[in-house]
Amino acid sequence: MAEKARKTLEERAQMSDIERLRHSCAHVLATAILRIWPDAQLAAGPPVENGFYYDMDLDHRISPEDFERIEAEMKKVVKENQKFERIVLSRAEAMDMAQSGRLGGLTERDAPSKFKIDILENIPDDEEISIYQNGEFTDLCAGPHVGFTSKCKAFKVMSVASAFYKGDANNPQLQRVYGTAFPNKTELNAYLEQLEEAKKRDHRKLGRELGLFHIDEEVGQGLILWMPKGAVIRQELQDFISEELRKQGYSQVFTPNIGKLDLYRTSGHFPYYQDSQYPPIVDRETLKHLADEGCGCAELSNRLDAGDVDGYLLRPMNCPHHIKIFSATHHSYRDMPVRLAEFGTVYRWEQSGELGGMTRVRGFTQDDAHLFCTPDQVEDEIIGCLNLVKKVLTTLGIDDYRVRVGLRDPDSSKYVGDPEDWDRAEESLRQVASTLDVPFTEAAGEAAFYGPKIDFLVKDVIGREWQLGTVQVDYNLPRRFDLSYVGADNQPHRPVMIHRAPFGSMERFVGVLIEHFAGHFPTWLAPEQVRLLPISEKYHAYADTVAETLRTIPGLRMTIDRNSEKVGAKIRLAQLEKVPYMLLIGAQEEESQQVTIRHRNRGDLGSVSVSAFLEQVGTEIRERSL
Ligand SMILES: [Zn+2]
Ligand SMILES: [Zn+2]
Question: Which end of the chain is more exposed for a tag (fewer CB within 10 A), N or C?
Fold first, then answer.
């Protein structure tokens, strides 16, 4: 995506206090860099989420070893308490400064400021040209800024990366120096600690260490292989969600991962959105036939788009399959709503640069469902979806979340369907959101092209916000597939469809949970729940007896560590593998027919009878305690 090097004046005026501070720090950074490397050619230096950056062309390759030196120079600029001064210039004056290297520089230089000249040339004629000056540094900038450099009290140079000028690969490659800044040291330190904690919790790192999932180049990028331990977690979650869905009157269905292109022509997914789909599958017979006719690849592609050649598509969505299940039988208003649920696997072609771990993938399983209802059932159905989300998140100890109501962008024409339907659907979502005791915001332009939606944003234990899934109201697909039910008036009526995948995908959800729990899954989700640690070979027999008793809990995931290691080493290994319960078994335990409990987080919990432990762990699992 092309980055906007300059924001419009209106966007500038809306800059928040923290953005103003961070953008000012970008100027301080630029001043420091020019003092160290006077030849640096500066491009753009905007605030970004959690900080700011400045792009520059510079012969010296900036490395982390330079950060301390840059920060020291920045501190000097802050200490000098330079005033940020806004100066309005004519286009010619600004161009003169750029030509002499003075704009985006400290003094006149041999080389003109090439990027500033380019930016200047692209400023619309009716826009005022302003520069900001602090001390000896002058930059082309619309502002706004803080008053003085001394406001930049807490900042840090974070990293350096390469970036193309204006984000375009045809342009020169620049160095992008990132920094962060906060109003005070306390907030900066809290942020740095959070980053440190996030690194420890990174699901890619923990997923590897705990053997939860694997990505294999030979299988393909963005395609997750769930290893046995990861599969346990996913299955437990699916069982839990399915249990709740049954309580809410959903029907489970199963459908295949591919469908004919015509299905997606009707739904509108093909040939639109091709960029985010795997290419169509055409059978060999047809391909051979086309080749004999002299049809080349480009022509085949065109014929597929036009619908002259049929094929199959790896499904990008589950909706069309569920629609076909709905339309396969006759429906009366009395059996509405129809709620069809499936953990449905879909495939999307994400750009390879965007892939990483479980949060951005090319194949994933949605906790999907489609509700077909009458127009006056929409609100109740949405409330049902929200209650389910509440139940699941609360059980997982995620109490902090909000919803965002995504509405149309009033200036865009990309939306399909009747404006009246849109008004109704938006009003329903607003209504529902206002009755929840959950904070909600409205966001224009966040709607799907076929209807408005509600997004769930959850905050994890270290304060990061994650976007999970959505609930979408859709008047469009029922029309495209000509769906109907018979109303009380004996006439056919069009149902409304609700798409809902509140946790997004199992991949993303488990990825978020790995980080939320830092790998310490509660006992009911833990891949291994109990490990018996006999302190020597002499006690293997008693360990087997204990295991026998524990097996009365169906499906309890338990192992016996029969290695000849010392018990201290066995404990360390179990801790490392984040097993919730370790049961130590030696002479004392055998004699008293007890076990000594050690908990992963709570340490030594003393000795109890085997039946007492059985009772305790059984309840913990059954109640899905945290
Ligand atoms: Zn500026
Ligand atoms: Zn759907």
Answer: N
